[in-house]
Amino acid sequence: QVQLQESGPGLxxxxxxxxxxxxxxxxxxxxxxxxxxxxxxxxxxxxEWMGAIAYSGSTYYSPSLKSRTSxxxxxxxxxxxxxxxxxTPEDTAVYYCARQVAGLFGSWGQGTQVTVSS
Length: 118
Known about the structure:
single chain; 118 residues; mainly beta; seven-stranded mixed sheet; four-stranded antiparallel sheet; 0% helix; globular
């Protein structure tokens, strides 16, 4: 069974770049038809899909975040990474990585809290 685990700093200063890594075990990120997403939930708000990297390496981004977001992968480590630039306190959230197939998010990491504060 696939497992996902987020890692990265829990505190980021305003204007800096947030960088998180999702390590996948029990399945390959290059397996056909799987998409690997980043999703966040700000305090008191709903889930927000940020973007994804496909099994092929193609990337997809939320239009509202596209200018600040980059998702990449390291197939040798079976990891994919989120970078969000020019962060503000409004980027404070719990960040999740998840696997998507056939439109469904079937597997999630436990989530990691990221706070943007000076």
